[in-house]
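User: For a reading group we're discussing how well predicted structures match intuition. Take EF-hand domain-containing protein. Before you show the prediction, I'll give you the sequence so everyone sees exactly what went in.
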Amino acid sequence: MPPGKVLQPVLKMKVDELFLCWLSESSTQAMLQDCLQRIKMPGGPVGVGGDAGQPGPPFAAPALACRPRGLDSPGAPSLSPASTALPLGAASSARSGPPVRGPRRSAGTRVVQTRKEQPLPPAASLSIPTFYFPRGRPQDAVNVDAIIAKIERTFAQFPHERATMGDMGRVAKACGCPLYWKGPLFCGAGGERTGSVSVHKFVAMWRKMLQSCHDDAAKFVHLLVSPGGSSLAQEDFIPFLQDVVNTHPGLAFLKEASEFHSRYITTVIQRIFYTVNRSWSGRITCAELRRSTFLQNVALLEDEVDINQLTEFFSYEHFYVIYCKFWELDTDHDLLIDAQDLARHNDHAVSTKMIERIFSGAVTRGKKVQKEGKISYADFVWFLISEEDKKTPTSIEYWFRCMDLDGDGVLSMFELEYFYEEQCRRLDSMAIEALPFEDCLCQMLDLVKPQSEGRITLHDLKRCKLASVFFDTFFNIEKYLDHEQREQISLFRESESEGPELSDWERYAAEEYDILVAEEAMGEPWEDGYEAELSPVDQKLSALRSPLAQRPFFEVPTGLGAVELYEYEHGGDDLPPS
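Assistant: Thanks. Here is the predicted 3D structure of EF-hand domain-containing protein, as structure tokens, for the group to look at:
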């Protein structure tokens, strides 16, 4: 046997061997002979061992079918009636002549080995057509040779048929990809290591891509994913987004402020995962990317000069609002905030119990929350978007995880009362009469209409069009009072409105951006006591107000600009929230 090969038993050969052993026993032969005699003489049964009254074996007929060919050989004992005089049932009876089963056993083994070599019939499952295409459904109409020829003609225009990062825009168009795929294409062909890509290396890469990836989602993941991976982690998006920052005309004013590239990239990455990574796994799969609108937004980067029009992921104004809100809370400007810092958001609107739940690890990744009781800027992005827009699926899941204290997937009446107690105390401190919990509970159950009485599930809240009212009732005092002052009919009208209206987050970001611009125009200093030059607000507004006449801005302290993109350890990024 060659080294390294492991012996594996063949069940059928072992069963056949055991059958032949059983068949070679003298008692088995005597029993078979007795059965044959019973078949030949049905009128006069012969008892086994001389007992005429004992019934015969019930499997006499099948035994005949199992009878080997060797019993008809010349050396076999005769099955004539005279043989019935022998004591058939005695295992110790004397036998004349040599045993006759030895040669048959080896012959039976040879038969089994021959049967093993016989081909098995085709399985019935082979006739079922393929219905699962993790890398996209193959397309018969793709002319690979024509695409490769077009790519080669494009490379022929470059010196030495090598393309730099600046040339990859034309290569992306030759491949039939959107313009801003040029960064992933360049990195996918190994250009980040050598500074350029040869035509032969790129053609080999793209030909393999066309053969294995059959839609845009699979191609995009294949280009960005780390070697050996099958899904995208957060750091996989950095080369792609860095190219967007470097080359998009809507971000030209940011080119010189390199210390803020990482802040913008971090914000966009968190917004991508907030919207696309519906599994909360920390890794984006082809299926999740395929179901999202991210690739459509990437294609729009080519046509939309104003980056702020792409509000779902890339808006710089949205990043500006998020970062300014974080800056106000991060008093020591180390890009980490604790529970006391986060509680100051929106003038302590969010309850203390909810702040504690956020820092419990229910909706945060990384080890700093558990070790030091702090969350990073990336975690704050999730918090702010979820706080200002509680109608999206991710925000509903975010707050449901926080309110589900025992993690059983159901909001019990105990958990609702736990959060409502603090709301009542805060209302009392404001000289506002709080609604008794029983009455509030009846209102919320009428609002949500859970499928199971007394149990509110995540599915119930996703079906409810007023989930934001439900959440604000239990942990946001400012928005709870705002809902109380408005009629419920108006809330339903807002929730049922159709058309290209702004989402709650887009409306909030637009309003806050206007406020920041107005404060800068009035020259109001920040309330945190820092000098004006430390504020990112006044350092950006001049460029935003006059994009055609831009000047340097974002002059921040060295300590703030030196902070790395990811403060938390990558070892905890892939862990789903508890």
